[in-house]
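Subject: Predicted fold for Endo-beta-1,2-glucanase SGL domain-containing protein, 584 residues

User T.R. writes:
Posting the sequence so we have a shared reference for the thread.
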Amino acid sequence: MGLKHALAGLACAAASATAAWSTCRWAPAVNASALLDPGSPELGRVFGLVGEFEAPFVRGVGVSSGLGVTRDGAVLNYTTGTAAQLHDFSAASKEGFHLALAARCIADAAEALGGRPRASAASDPGLQLARKELLRALCGWPSSGSRRRTAQAAGYWVATLGAKLDSFARFNSSFPGFGGYLPWFSVPANNSGSMGLLQGWENRVPALDNGELFWGVVAAGQAARRLAGAASEAPGFESAATEAESLAARLEAVWSAMAATARTLFWGGAESRGAVFAVTTIANVSLPPGQSPVSGSGRLDDPYEGELFTWVLDLLTGLDAAEREDLWLAKRPQLAAVPYRMPSQLAAQGAAAPDTVSVQRGFWFSAHEQMKGLYLPYTDASLVPTSAKVLRACEVARAADSAARRVPGLFASVTDVAAVPPSDLLPPVIPGYISAAGIAALASQPIQRRDVVTPYGAMAMALVAPREAAVWYVHTLAATAMQGPLGSTAACNVNGTEIAPVATWDSKSSTVLGFLGGVGDLTGEALAALPDTGGATKLDRFRAVTEREMQRVFGTTVPGSDLPIALPTAAVPRTEGLRDFVTC
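User M.O. replies:
I've generated the structure tokens; pasting them so everyone works from the same file.
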């Protein structure tokens, strides 16, 4: 049985799932306290709804169907919440999200065929069941749960990733100088043709976004490898195994080729003592790397999502021992602990419970900065316990800040809000972007905005405290016009008068991926199969360095990391000037 014959069946399954719910405005009816109860089915119900109403973006307007590549997002009609204008551009980071979600779907299909199940959290089996509900709706699985039908529906993901890799190959053939990495690029409006060069990025390429792309490719390749193995053991699925094996080989070839050019494009050389360029300019992108001069600008030395590219250089580019260590020495000044004193009304009671939390200092302390946890196993407490504690401590502080100050949501870098236009006949409003949103006491840089909250402020929390994250996420979705036919809206202001009228990969799919636990298990599995020095594996290297660097700053206990996550204490008010989308 082939996987690619399931597209029609997938469409029917998606239509059936959508018909099961009459409204996309479900958040106000959620029982928030039940989300925290391991014995309640409410988390599974909510996760199923999240998957159902995010699917039209993840499997629809967020992807160019002909090319298989992402669109950054869409501008929304203020009345209907439908896409008024699709973005004609995208970036490597959006590709990373798409690949990672595809990886989770493909890995779940492998499990449905009898493959090795993902390790579950025995302390919360309800969370694992809820994740299954999210995957069922998001991935397009049939409600019957038949392994044959699930494997058929996985054909959508195999075919889409195949189209994506075809698009990547055409782009790389036209512009080999990028070395397999992606600049911000244009996407044709008619879903045909090819990816193109975007103005301002004709010969420039960023490392940070490409770190997310790189590990998304690795995760998707490992998931395809799982599917190939499961299908080969299931009678009647021989052609499915062949297709999955082919996809796995193609994905592995892509990340191997990217690893081969990483040093040339982004490393400052041994004399730079660990410099990683934030953006590289290539003199002639028509020539392969090494045949045209390159120059780097900025330094990618942060301990946040930019660290994903540091791991590409450390693990997969053949640097010697001293050069690898220089990468981490160069980053050390940026990794710092900040004491956060719990607000008096939230402070833990009792002598044994600390009222100060040891928090990793942020740049702005935007939730966006913790996206590295979506791609590599930073939150695996059995592998890197100190890292997991530090990331949870950050979420203790993030939630406490908003709860104590009665902020009706969480902060992350996001598209700005815009006033309601007097008429939908006017061109769509395209707001600017808010970068400096966060918590001043925990940031190294000045904070400029704290008047806009976003559902994806709960993204990092979803990795370490998914039930509490679900409460914050649903709480923000309950605000006016924060839910529509494309799922969650990007953001709203705390006064309830304006929304950010867009749907984007960053503000939507990051949280969905967080609720699914990220893809660290898949990338970790891939690294465990690769040898490093001294008989160790690449995963051993990740474990050793991550724990060493975290323990150097935080010790091993990380005070306050086990404190409860505070819950919302205020809601976004409903106002006369803003209405829910009429489609809901």
